[in-house]
Amino acid sequence: MVGQGSCSVRGLIARAGVKIAVVFGLGAIAACNGTRPTGPSERPNVLLITVETLRADHVGSYGYRRNTTPNLDRLAAQGARFENTLAQAPFTLPSIASLMTGRTPPGHGVRNHPAILAPELETLAERFRAAGYQTAAMTRHTWLRRKSGLDQGFDEYHNNKFSAGLDARSLSLAAVDWLDARDPERPFFLWLHFLDPHLPYTPSYPYSALFREEHADEPRVQHLRSMVEREHDTFEPTPYADIPGGPYYDLVFPHYPDNEALLDLAFWRRSRGSIFFGGKRYSADTVSELRELYDGAITYTDDNLARIMKSLADLGVETSTVVAVTGDHGEAFGEHGLYFTHDFALYDEVLRVPLVLRYPDSIPPGTEVSQQVRLMDLAPTLLELADVELGPLEQSDAVSLVPLVKGGTLPFLNAFAESAPRRSMFPEHERVYFDGNRGKWRMLRTERWKLIRIPHPDGDLYELYDLVSDPGETQNLFHELPGEAGKLVPLLESWMQQDPARDLDNSAEEDAELEGLDPAAVQQLRTLGYIQ
Ligand SMILES: [Zn+2]
């Protein structure tokens, strides 16, 4: 461990962030507005919930064949559901940094795990605090630790108890305690990040067997099923939401005795790269069983979401609280050669997340938005719903989505995203050819097309997909449709040209920062598959 080295890395990254900000014409952000309250108001509370690794198409109200998320679906029915929401990066820290700043990764400078958000950048929490809100964040994810710089603007930032445990239960209980103890005279901004759907996909029983037909007649599975499927308008967690979260290897393995991938992920019997990029060795049944477990972890999270929604109702703030629920990115289960991971590609299974907003004051129930939006657009949206000034976020890349939930229109919003290369740590990835920023894939998603650029020593490789006729992104049309490609490449290039660090090989800095992690953080990162 070389903890001392991390300060200089932090400084380097912070300075790089400033430089990027200036190039982006954001010099004014240096003058942060401090914490001067704007005076008493009738502003709503804002509760932001992000669920780790939650792909949109595994959410019930997004057309999934399983009833994984009855509570999120109920919330959507009471407010707005955005059908096409794209993350700006397929991995946690850059994606959350985009949400918090309204900028794409080149704009906020957080390009990898780990990295540090420059203090000069204005965040959503800083805007709320400046408007007199009490602000708090709760997460157990190592990458979202205080040192990431995401703590900016939070009066309280709870990320100090790393453990292998995922545990939506403890997070939801802590949130309920916080809501009970807060100052009821001031509005709050509370951000919760649930971790449970991340690998190793070992939720507690009976969630682990909830979607396993062979175990459907077990009494506790039957009971949980009946409770999940009951019809009601209010939020009530099942008794099983009180079971601590996993990873529960001992309880999961007996239900999946022959699942080779589960054992590989639990004990890292193979190198991470040989699992993530070489998973073709697993049978379709093996992969499908891991989806069952992933779905069980989603339902466990959803059940604990009910606990928080019930608390809002019990406290009488259900209608005076803006609730936003989304994911930080998706997950691949064999699509495009990626297994049980997300960082390394830019296809929809790793970028498309659910987004649900409820605020009865402004959003009619049952609102459906099909137009493409970006996760980063949530920052100005939440501020506008709360009538808080955008301040420096006015110069961000994001657009408030409020017109879309009030029956209005917005111009089409192109989505850009970039991947994590991590070539040095994942030599098995056959399609990352350079280290650092230089090796990143970049993506543009328009109303109909997706263009992906993959840097290659012999010239960049491109993929072009027609999302209307080929939503699974299986047919690369780049060479067949030179007309379309010719229109889209300059758009992607112009986004990249704004990024002075686009060809930087910063992998050494990233690796140095990794070495500075404490043992508890290392243990969690090992469980989650980030280090061997
Ligand atoms: Zn994540």
Number of domains: 1
Q: What are the bound molecules?
A: zinc ion
The chain-level structural class is alpha/beta
Radius of gyration: 22 Å
Helical proportion, percent range: 25-40%
CATH topology: Alkaline Phosphatase, subunit A
Task: Let me know the largest β-sheet.
Answer: 9 strands, mixed
Number of helices: 17
CATH architecture call: 3-Layer(aba) Sandwich
Number of strands: 15
Shape: globular
In percent terms, what proportion of residues is strand?
Answer: 5-15%
Instruction: Provide the low-confidence segments as ranges.
Output: 1-40
- CATH-defined superfamily: Alkaline Phosphatase, subunit A
Mean pLDDT: 89
The CATH class assignment is Alpha Beta
Blueprint (SSEs and pairs):
Elements: H1 5-23, E1 45-51, H2 70-78, E2 80-86, H3 92-101, H4 105-108, H5 124-130, E3 134-139, E4 156-158, H6 168-181, E5 188-194, H7 219-228, H8 249-252, H9 260-267, H10 272-276, H11 284-314, E6 321-327, E7 332-333, E8 339-341, H12 348-351, E9 352-358, E10 367-369, E11 373-374, H13 378-385, H14 402-405, E12 415-418, E13 442-445, E14 449-454, E15 461-466, H15 482-497, H16 507-515, H17 519-527
The structure holds zinc ion.
Zinc ion is lined by residues 52-53, 91-92, 328-329.
